[in-house]
Design a protein that fits this description.
alpha/beta; Rossmann fold; two-stranded antiparallel ribbon; 5 helices; binds 1-O-pyrophosphono-5-O-phosphono-alpha-D-ribofuranose; binds adenine; cytoplasm; adenine phosphoribosyltransferase
């Protein structure tokens, strides 16, 4: 895997290092500028640009993007909506997790900020409350965090789409490809009925493989997927192009 290391300034570490140093556990890298706001230490974190499928080569910007028009617009219809920039600022970026070279977008720090978490849910609820959606399908694991409060607020049921062999009842499965190998998502038979209108929720869309499999799974049982919604999009990975005619709505996107 080819790597290019780009260091934020000032940074004493030379680019010749093949393995970047490990930051302290409580390091915080806000998405927007990757500025170091962790505890005071001599360590300065590198910013990585990676040539693999999960790289995030540009800082994430605050926007809500709707793929129907393929234009960027704010979720609240207000271009200056301060809620989105706050949400973006509390998402932490952790280098080299879960493996070297990955810039992991960590939404657990968003959950610690009660206003930003509530605003995230509200932005989705404002968009979907009048859309006659009867079921919200959340993708394991982080779709289980955002999906249920949205479902309750819009008066829809919540259905978990799980990793293989987790659901106890009869399931239907859909396979999808990963960088290496394949994975599956599963849903309980009978959780949704043909003709229902669904919203699919996850925290992040990267390559789009997971959402694509979720759409196929729901469509196989005759459910209409009204839209997919995520907090974060990594647009360079072109995930939305894999979703066909199903619209994708995101709150925070890279440039
Ligand atoms: O667009 P894609 O390339 O398919 O990637 C997006 C998926 O990757 C992450 O989940 P992950 O597979 O890491 O599972 P986890 O939430 O259970 O850790 C994320 O929460 C999405 O579900
Ligand atoms: N960079 C990333 N951060 C968090 N979750 C991901 N899923 C796929 N790529 C990811």
């Amino acid at each position: 895997m080819r790597r290019v290391l780009i260091f934020s300034s000032p940074n004493p570490i030379t680019p010749q290092l093949s393995t970047p140093p490990t930051p302290p556990v409580n390091a915080v890298f806000p998405i927007r500028n990757c500025r170091w706001i962790g505890p005071s230490t001599s360590f300065q974190p590198p910013v990585l640009r990676l040539h693999n499928y999960q790289r995030t080569p540009t800082p994430l910007l605050c926007s809500a993007t709707d793929s129907v028009t393929n234009q960027t617009k704010m979720a609240s219809q207000d271009e200056q909506d301060p809620r989105i920039s706050k949400i973006s600022s509390v998402i932490r970026v952790i280098p080299n997790f879960p493996k070297p070279g990955i810039l992991f977008q960590d939404i657990t720090t968003l959950l610690l900020d009660t206003k930003a978490f509530r605003d995230t849910i509200d932005l989705f609820v404002e968009r979907y409350r009048e859309k006659d959606i009867s079921v919200v399908a959340g993708i394991e694991a982080r779709g289980f965090i955002f999906g249920p409060p949205i479902a309750l607020a819009i008066g829809a049921k919540f259905v978990p789409l799980r990793k293989p062999n987790k659901l106890p009842g009869e399931v239907i499965s859909e396979e999808y490809s990963l960088e290496y190998g394949t994975d599956k998502i599963e849903m309980h038979v009978g959780a949704m009925q043909a003709g229902e209108r669904a919203l699919i929720i996850d925290d992040l869309v990267a390559t789009g493989g997971t959402l694509c499999a979720a759409i196929r799974l729901l469509e196989r049982v005759g459910v209409h997927v009204v839209e997919c919604a995520c907090v974060i999009e990594l647009p360079e990975l072109k995930g939305r192009e894999r979703l066909g005619d199903t619209p994708l709505f995101v709150l925070v996107s890279s440039a």
